[in-house]
């Protein structure tokens, strides 16, 4: 989700910068505008905000973590809804994640023990309040600039035994590299699952890499369930034996054999840091001692693997033997450095202790070799039973298929990856032996699991016509999805770009986004009437239009200003189109017609024909022939005047000045 720096959630939390992306949300550095402090803002992906299950998971994280106030747990301040999604407001920890520190190389056992003890303290606090984290990993462990350790992201945590658990049969939540065998099988989990995950983190801190790796989460999950934990000292011989014992106990496959609480694990880590004997090493020593003392064969054989591991490592064997050989001095015996009961020198007692320890180790190795060798040879018989490979495994998730096979009693189930465009990644393509085959429960069953479509290189179709490009992509095994975009350099109907780009690999059958040119972008010509030519040209040029000018007279627009454009304002044209700007030369002029000797009506018609306005006045005349005839005009005929100007016209009006008296002569003078 792309966010701008000015985005504000809940009218209170303003984004500052992006911090990280998780499996279901983005995390940002934000500022609490109300309290004026930095906070971490976790925003659920919008596409998940419509999924009620994810929203419930998000809400549960806020609710669960908000009730956990502890120095080693990241505090939750607030949560809410905004910008079409949901968000959680957390304490901002200025520092680094443990995962980023581990990229610099393995840590010393002392450093790992100190960090691990703080993480265990946080988990124990949560466990006592009924909350299981279920996603303990280096990415969720934060270390601030003062070295303080904090546990974050209770995104898949749940109240122990609470209703509405998102983990259902056949589904797994967590991170495959760090989750426990019971999580890998989709079984119920408790606090001991967090102990196992923390054991994996401790392993990675000192060994430089996790105990199990694989091509996909399914193969890693299988190793957590079926394969023994490799000794971390194989990767780093400098790891102390006591610390290795802590890790191996935390990562016991059977939860009953692990530390039964995070507090037990924390206590052992503290003992290690203080240079004291750790409970895990003492417990491992008891296995050796019990076998050496002639313990029950069943118990000895049951612990043969652990004891054999001790016996195969002289350093660990020495630590174990040293723990059991140190006995308290009995009353009456000599103190430190003196002879023991019967006057036996301490050197002799130490030598005998080493001899007993060596014999015990040898006995363990012989018992283990005899038991497992005899089992392989069939001396002890076989408890395997006949089972039929089920027919409902194909197209199911590999995790669910493995879980069903284990529940049926198949003990040797493995997976191998194979590309497929027909079967969803992570689902089973086929099973060997095929469905319906009856085999012994300890015979191998191999699930072929889809790794998704085989990668194919995207062909180069940039610059091709869209129809040709679509055909080329389809021939290569892709689905072409086209979108349109204007371009000043690529002609209409031609391909501008593809995503993925040409030469990159994508799964066969996957979609390739093809961007097709609609030609040059369109702009709408604005109205520039009444502007001066320079201003009008600048506005049009800023839109990518070319400008030319012409002049024309105007009776309404002042001289020197724009009268109109061609194409006219409001027309949509392509960028680069030429627009003609017309500039006013002022009102148009006309020649005053010659009106003399015209009648008043003829003069009025002549002036109207050229757009002039007459102003008639009368002048007395003695000549009857001039009655109603134009005798003068102003301006004179031929004068250029503005269209609409007034012309003064003088029309003659005859007056008879002679008086006649009927029957009489004029008086004499």
Task: Give a description of the structure.
This protein is of the alpha+beta class and 669 residues long. The protein folds into 7 domains: 8-91, Phosphorylase Kinase, domain 1 (2-Layer Sandwich), CATH 3.30.200.20; 96-276, Transferase(Phosphotransferase) domain 1 (Transferase(Phosphotransferase), domain 1), CATH 1.10.510.10; 277-326 and 354-376; 394-450, Trypsin Inhibitor V, Chain A, CATH 3.30.10; 455-517, Trypsin Inhibitor V, Chain A (2-Layer Sandwich), CATH 3.30.10.20; 522-584, Trypsin Inhibitor V, Chain A (2-Layer Sandwich), CATH 3.30.10.20; 589-654, Trypsin Inhibitor V, Chain A, CATH 3.30.10. It is 31% helix and 24% strand. It has 17 helices and 31 strands. The strands form 11 sheets. Strands 1-2-3-4-6-5 form a 6-stranded antiparallel beta sheet, with helices on one face. The longest helix has 32 residues, at 346-377. Residues 1-5, 155-172, 288-346, 360-369, 371-381 and 659-665 have low confidence and may be disordered.
Could you name the key traits of this structure?
alpha+beta, Phosphorylase Kinase, domain 1, 7 domains, six-stranded antiparallel β-sheet, 17 helices, 31 strands, elongated, disordered N terminus
- Report low-confidence residues grouped into runs of 5 or more: 1-5, 155-172, 288-346, 360-369, 371-381, 659-665
CATH architecture label of the largest domain: Orthogonal Bundle
Q: Give the strand content.
A: 15-25%
Number of strands: 31
CA-CA gap between termini: 124 Å
CATH topology of the largest domain: Transferase(Phosphotransferase), domain 1
Largest sheet: 6 strands, antiparallel
CATH domain class name of the largest domain: Mainly Alpha
- Categorize the overall geometry: elongated
Query: Structural class, judged by helices and strands?
Result: alpha+beta
Whole-number mean pLDDT: 80
The value of Rg in angstroms is 48 Å
What is the tally of helical segments? 17
Major sheet strand order: 1-2-3-4-6-5
């Amino acid at each position: 989700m792309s966010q701008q720096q000015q985005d504000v959630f809940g009218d209170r939390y303003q984004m500052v910068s992006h911090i990280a992306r998780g499996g279901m949300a983005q995390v940002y550095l934000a500022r609490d505008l109300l309290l004026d402090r930095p906070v971490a803002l976790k925003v659920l992906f919008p596409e998940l905000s419509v999924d009620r299950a994810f929203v419930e998971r998000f809400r549960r994280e806020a609710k669960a973590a908000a009730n956990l106030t502890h120095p080693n747990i990241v505090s939750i301040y607030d949560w809410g809804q905004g910008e079409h999604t949901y968000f959680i407001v957390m304490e901002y920890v200025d520092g680094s994640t443990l995962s980023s520190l581990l990229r610099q190389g393995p840590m010393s056992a002392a450093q790992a023990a100190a960090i691990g003890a703080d993480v265990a303290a946080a988990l124990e606090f949560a466990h006592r309040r009924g909350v299981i984290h279920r996603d303990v990993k280096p990415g969720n462990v934060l270390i601030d600039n003062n070295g303080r350790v904090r546990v974050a992201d209770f995104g898949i945590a749940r109240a122990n035994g609470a209703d509405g658990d998102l983990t259902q049969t056949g589904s797994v939540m967590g991170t495959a590299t760090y989750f426990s065998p019971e999580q890998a099988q989709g079984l119920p989990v408790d606090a001991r699952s967090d102990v196992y995950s923390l054991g994996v983190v401790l392993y990675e801190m000192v060994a430089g890499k996790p105990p199990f790796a694989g091509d996909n989460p399914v193969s890693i999950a299988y190793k957590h369930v079926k394969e023994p934990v490799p000794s971390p000292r194989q990767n780093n011989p400098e790891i102390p034996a006591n610390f290795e014992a802590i890790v191996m106990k935390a990562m016991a496959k059977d939860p009953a054999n692990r530390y039964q609480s995070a507090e037990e694990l924390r206590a052992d880590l503290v003992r290690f840091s203080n240079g004291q004997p750790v409970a895990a090493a003492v417990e491992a020593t008891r296995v050796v001692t019990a076998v050496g003392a002639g313990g029950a064969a069943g118990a000895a054989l049951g612990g043969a693997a652990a004891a054999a591991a001790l016996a195969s490592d002289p350093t660990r064997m020495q630590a174990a033997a040293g723990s059991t050989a140190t006995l308290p001095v009995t009353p009456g015996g000599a103190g430190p450095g003196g002879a023991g009961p019967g006057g036996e020198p301490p050197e002799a007692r130490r030598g005998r202790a080493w001899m007993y320890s060596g014999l015990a180790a040898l006995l363990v190795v012989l018992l283990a070799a005899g038991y497992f060798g005899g089992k392989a040879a069939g001396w002890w018989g076989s408890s395997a039973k006949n089972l039929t490979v089920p027919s409902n495994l194909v197209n199911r998730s590999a995790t669910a298929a493995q879980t069903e096979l284990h529940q049926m009693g198949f003990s040797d189930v493995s997976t191998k990856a194979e590309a497929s465009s027909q079967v969803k990644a992570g689902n089973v393509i086929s099973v060997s032996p095929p469905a319906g085959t009856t085999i012994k429960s300890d015979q191998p069953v191999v699930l072929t699991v889809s790794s998704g479509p085989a990668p194919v290189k995207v062909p180069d179709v940039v610059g091709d016509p869209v129809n040709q490009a679509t055909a080329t992509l389809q021939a290569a095994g892709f689905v072409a999805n086209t979108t349109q975009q204007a371009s000043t350099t690529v002609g209409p109907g031609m391909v501008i770009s593809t995503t993925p780009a040409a030469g990159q690999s994508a799964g066969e059958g996957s979609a390739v986004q093809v961007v097709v040119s609609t030609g040059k972008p369109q702009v709408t010509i604005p109205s520039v009437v009444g502007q001066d030519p320079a201003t009008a040209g600048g506005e049009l040029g800023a839109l990518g239009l070319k400008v030319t000018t012409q002049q024309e007279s105007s009776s309404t627009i002042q001289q020197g200003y724009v009268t109109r454009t061609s194409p006219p304002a409001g027309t949509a044209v392509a960028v680069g189109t030429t627009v003609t700007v017309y500039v006013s030369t002022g009102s148009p002029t006309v020649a005053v017609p010659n009106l003399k000797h015209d009648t008043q009506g003829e003069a009025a018609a002549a002036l109207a024909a050229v757009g002039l306005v007459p102003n008639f006045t009368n002048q007395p005349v003695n000549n009857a022939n001039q009655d109603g005839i134009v005798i003068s005009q102003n301006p004179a005929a031929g004068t250029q005047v503005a269209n609409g100007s007034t012309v003064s016209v003088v029309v003659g009006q005859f007056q008879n000045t002679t008086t006649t008296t009927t029957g009489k002569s004029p008086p004499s003078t």
